[in-house]
Amino acid sequence: MNQTINKYSKQIIIVNSIFILFWLTISIFPFIWTLWGSFKVKADFFSRADWTYALSGFNTLIETGATTTFKAYLESWTEGEFGRATMNTMIVTVSVVSISLFLGTLGAYALSRSTFKYTFYILIIALIFRAMPHITLVSGYLFPFFQLNIWGILPTTIIVLVAINQPFTLWLLYSFFKTVPKELDESALIDGCSYFQAFRYIIMPVMWPGVVTAGLFSMMLAYNDFTVTALLLNQHNYTMVPKINAYLGTVEYGGNYMWAVSSVVSATAPLFMIIWFFQKQLISGLTAGAVKG
Amino acid sequence: MPHRTFIWFILPTALAMILFIGLPIVSSFFQSLHIENEQVLMEVENCDPFGCTTNVRVDVEATEKIEAENPLGRFNGFGTYTDRNHLAFDEIREAWDNKTSIGEFKDIVLNLPFYKALLFTLTFCFAVTPPVIVLGFIVALSVNTLAKNLKGLIVFGTILPMIVTPLIGSLVLFWMIDSQGIIGASIQILFDDPNLSLKASSNLTWITLIIYGIWHNTPFAFVVFYAALQTVPQDPLEAAYIDGATRFERVRFIVIPHLYPVATFIMLICLMDNFRVFEPIIGFSAEGVAQSLSWMIYQDLRNENKMLFGSAGATSMLTILGIAFLLTPVLIRTWKEFKTER
Fold it and tell me: Which value, in Å, is the radius of gyration of the alpha carbons in chain A?
């Protein structure tokens, strides 16, 4: 029966394939184009005369002697100190992911196992906190941080990102822990484990699928953040995304567009690779709150 | 779980959230009640062989002293909320009293910074969300019919716009749409108008930003719809097939009703996310014609002479008020879900 229902007529298959191809072009082509253009000089990628120069590398050939050039990459990584920004992003991302998973698993486990009513209010408050635009929070941070003299350094930004990330992590892990049968840790409790021991020896070994998903989202938040890092870090400590923005506008870098183009490629490539490996977890996390049959 | 154990488990995360989400909101509110210190002016007499002149200039020492005593500024109550850069009550009243037509009044009000930003923010929200839902649904239906071994690759391709941060996403598009980029230049040739560009008119910029918004948000709608499609019950579909329903009718009368709750969920999340639109404006360098509420806060905090904490705080509070409106339905929904679970 299922076979006949799901059989598609030829027209549908053709129309469908065309649509999918069209859609994929829209979603992927901009990235391919940027990747391609990052190996050209500015006069080609932003060509007033003829956009086909970007394909043929007309000016690139004149300026550098070859149709592709690594000039933008070399310059941005050396002169532009993009390596430093990459290092900062790695420090921030790794710290944010590990700290927020540590706090999040403990909190979410407690929320999923407590039967008292206040768990519900905590979750609702977390939901409200999650909806707060980050920029409004940043406007609240700056003044106290200046007074306490902790503005501009990485640890402050890490803690702030961890906190901003907690509501989502809590919700995600909470709904995950709900699916772990209560009997598992209850039997451990009866055998004389403390709650912490039950968590450590019974729950931790089985919680990895949920933790990977939550970690993936923490990583994306920390890696992609612009609002918090641009306003809470000083220029010297910038992570990749604010650094790219700095290449575009500030006097210091003279609006060096090709640096920004090559840095965009340097910043997105690792992200795409990670997502390629963890695609399933990403999708399960996105749909956790939405689909319940 | 006993209360005591529960507290130890929840304490670290609760502390982080209270200190860095709860308190900043309070701090923002306090800042919004204050305004920057006034500069102390003094008169200086300059005498030279041709006579004496008195100049007014800033007394740096005295100003710094006040600044050190009162770093937050002086108390201003709700003055910042009603000033020209925010709710602008006086300006609106004046415009209303002196109006010759409703259109003129509208023009004046929508040129005030806050209302201008609000108009863009709301336009963006409500122009982006419906196409995102429709497009996301179509893409999900379409991917769902594909052969299994193709799906993984195509899903990956589809979600790329969502993964990159809005700043990078908008830059990547901007570089193509810019008058010197591939699409921008082609359009100029197509319409044979060398001056046609993104920055030529505010309408074009708004449309570009909205197109970007759709591009960035559709993958989210797609993913959620795609997962929901896997839960559509097969029995009614079969029954409809036997009764002679066409493919379109089956989608229209069985699949779509099944997905209504999911669609409202996507709509609410989309509206909330887009209400904070900010990074695309920077990515597209569209500050001149399109300002959003979040962008206003950013601008106050980026002010070159002095950070305008009061002004930023007031805009933040008004933004949070807007979010609260949008959030209420989500909260009610969650509340109901919890009630049914128990």
Answer: 24
Residue B147 in domain:
yes
Report residue A291's pLDDT band, with 50, 70 and 90 as the boundaries. Answer: very low
Looking at every residue in chain B, the average pLDDT score rounds to: 86
Asked if the C-beta of A103 comes within 8 angstroms of chain B's C-beta atoms, the answer is yes
Interval A174-186 mean pLDDT: 87
pLDDT, mean of residues B93-116: 86
Q: Check B224 against A290: CB less than 8 A apart.
A: yes
Pairing of strands B74-75, B51-58: unpaired
Same domain, B224 and B141: yes
Chain A (58-97) residues lying within 8 Å, Cβ to Cβ, of chain B: none
Homologous superfamily (CATH) of A76-287 is MetI-like (1.10.3720.10)
Question: ipTM of this predicted complex?
Answer: 0.88
Largest CA distance in chain A: 78
Which A residues, 202 through 221, put their C-beta within 8 Å of a C-beta on chain B?
220
Contacts of A103 in chain B (CB under 8 A): 12-13, 16
Question: Sign of the CA dihedral A212, A218, A220, A222?
Answer: negative
If one compares B275 and A256, the residue with the highest pLDDT of the two is B275
Contacts of A263 (CB under 8 A, 6+ apart): A76, A80, A82, A240, A243, A244, A247
Q: Do A135 and B297 touch (CB under 8 A)?
A: yes
Of A40-54, A169-183, B314-328, the one with minimum mean pLDDT is A40-54
Percent of chain A with pLDDT over 70: 92
3-class DSSP assignment, residue B52: strand
Q: What are phi and psi of A142, to 5 degrees?
A: -55, -50
Q: Is A115 on the interface with B (CB under 8 A)?
A: yes
Q: Does A127 touch chain B (CB under 8 A)?
A: yes
Residue A4: predicted pLDDT = 56
Are B62 and B147 in a shared domain? no
Indicate whether B123 and B246 sit together in one domain: yes
Ordered by start, the domain boundaries in chain A are 2-70, 76-287
Inter-chain touch B17–A163, beta carbons under 8 Å: yes
**Residue span of the structural domain in which B87 resides:** 78-104
Residue B294 lies in a domain: yes
Top-confidence residue, A83 or B152: A83
User: Does residue B145 sit in the same domain as residue B92?
Assistant: no
The verdict on a CB contact (< 8 Å) between B227 and A290 is yes
